[in-house]
Specification:
The complex is a heterodimer of chains A (713) and B (54). By secondary structure, chain A is an all-alpha fold. Chain A is built from 25 helices and four strands. Chain A has a two-stranded antiparallel ribbon. Chain A has a two-stranded antiparallel sheet with strand order 2-3. In chain A, α1 packs antiparallel against α16, α2 packs across α7 and α14 packs parallel to α16. In chain B, 67% of the residues lie in helices and 0% in strands. Classes of the chains: A mainly alpha (713), B mainly alpha (54).
Amino acid sequence: MSSPHNENLETFSYDDKIVKLFVYATLFWGFVAMLLGVTIAFQLADWKVNMGLEWMTFGRLRPLHTNAAIFAFAGNGIFAGTYYSLQRLCKARLFNDFLGRIHFWGWQLIILLGAVSLMLGFSTGKEYAELEWPFDIAIAAVWVIFGVNFFGTLKRRREKHIYVAIWFYIATILTVAVLHIVNSLALPVDLMKSYSVFAGAQDALIQWWYGHNAVAFFLTTPFLGLMYYFIPKAINRPVYSYRLSIIHFWSLVFIYIWAGPHHLLYTALPEWLQTLGMVFSVSLWAPSWGGMINGLLTLRGAWDRVRREPVLKFLASAVTFYGMATFEGPLLAIKSVNALGHFTDWIVGHVHSGTIGWNYFMIAGVLYYMVPKLWKTQIYSERLGNIQFWTGTIGLLLYIVSMWVAGITQGSMWQAIDPSTGNLLYPNFVETIVRIVPMYWVRAFGGVFVLFSFIIMIYNLMKTIVNAPKDVKEDVFQAPPLNFKSDGHDSGHRKLEGLPLIFSVLSVLAILVGSAIEILPSLMADDFIEKKEDVSPYTPLELLGRDIYIKEGCYVCHSQMVRPMVAEKLRYGKPSMAAESVYDHPFQWGSRRIGPDIARVGGKYPNMWHYKHMLDPRAVTPDSIMPEYPWLFKNKVNFKLIQKKMEVMTALGVPYSAEEIDKGYETAREQANEITEGLAEFGVSMDMQDKEIIALIAYLQRIGTDIGQEDEE
Amino acid sequence: MNALYIMIPISVLLGSVFIAIFILAAKDDQFEDLTTPAYRILTDDINEIERGNE
């Protein structure tokens, strides 16, 4: 170390105010996300918790919960930890304080307005990307601001070596930008409605390429960066193997991006793609466990401190849960295991061992480390930290175990066939739900524990902050500028370091421009969509009904994908084909069956059944846990939008003729009238014909009817 | 499955970007020293100025 009086030294301080802002936001949104999680957990245990309120139903709150947990809670946590560690690792102040403020307030505004829009039913119908197009643009803009601030800081660093944590942050920033933009490509109908440019199987592929990598590059790589910085700092020992951490990083970023298709095993996706997804998923075992072992071995010889200190306790368990989740993930991606686990609660449990065990605990460890440092004080109560740890862990274990039991029970019941008759052992779907409702109660109470543990942390940290000494001076540091360390060719050195950054930013821009050029012609050309004779576009009324299906988030509980398995064929009918959803912008294959699959529901029940079912599901299916949808019988359908919607669909390649679009309004009205006349025989008023329920019935009766049930073999 | 024409090039390009970054970083000697960086971060918040005044 050079002497502090060296003339070459530069004096600087860190922008810790921005870190503090993100800490507050993390605490606030973490509470909101977990409260929402507990609410929807109770809604599954007892449908009455839906309260018959439009904006409170499971279908709308579940997207709100997932978006809040990922982008609001984890997002703010990542920003706090990244800005804290980046400045210190670079020995440089944040590139621009003002950009940091725009980043902060822009992100909070997006979350707040986005939350309201999801409750109001504005949804793209794509999982983990439900926010409508104006939000997508705002997210991209704020993300770019984050990127500029990040790379600007990196460029001004006073430490030549780029520590491994920074590599993980770089991968996060680049990849999330690309994934978000590609998956969000949509044509708007109006300010709050758009249709995905992709349809059916293609949309599914893009969606899960995004969905899986949201897990990989939003919930994994930034947290690994935090792990590689905060675990060594917290225990004051170097990482077990720096070499391994570099290998961990490079192998992870190359493998992760290909694993997405494991979300679509046994669907109508081409088989070779499914196998590709499976192979890459299984390959992920090695780097993930390499990283976990590296994190845990950093704690070697200091486990006594792990027993005492909340910071280390949270960090160590976070890494342990990372190991567990990354063991379970590849396991579930093996086709034969996936056949049992897919569409069940096993997946839900798996996800939460990641989000609670890995993300929440990692954030808790990081906060317990950063807050006393930022406010120059001691933690208010280590005891409360320990109580929080045990409360959270017990809650999480209740959650995971109940979901294992529920998932494997339900998965086995779906597939159980009576060997003597060859029929399904549990032909009534609702039987399989009734069996797991006790597990839903266990899960909900597990969630209460987790929420309660988070409240303890909020109290503990706020007390720490309130008790902290006021008017402490900002730390000032000194370090030599980078080019003073040169050995004769300093400017060349500096240039080379700038290169990767400029190069990567330009490359990503090139990717985006290139792909836009590639995508656009395909949208215009009719022959780009594979056709099947008997598959035709939705009627205008069905299209309106489909938008209601998306608005109410039906896809969060009902899949539209019959897998090619004996039990599924017996239960639902002919397996789904890719050609059936070529006009589905977006696809609605779903990922979970809290209710039965409805890919073949069209024509299965009379219209009146659906009418009664939406009003009171238990009137036609005793013991059903589905919420009631009374507002569908009051809200009017906006028929006036139909022509615009059909025009957008046409631009996306759906073959509506000009005449069909011209007559769209009348055709929709006529079909609504026809359906209502049928219902009128059972005493339904003709006034219902402009209500949402009629359009929804039209859509439901259409699903899966294009391909004949009888025409096989 | 035309989406593959978009996805595979993007994934390959993204991969290529990472390879390019890797090569440039390696040329820049980022991975030459795999020992001291792990130790270096442990001292980065020790305030040299205050220390010097002690």
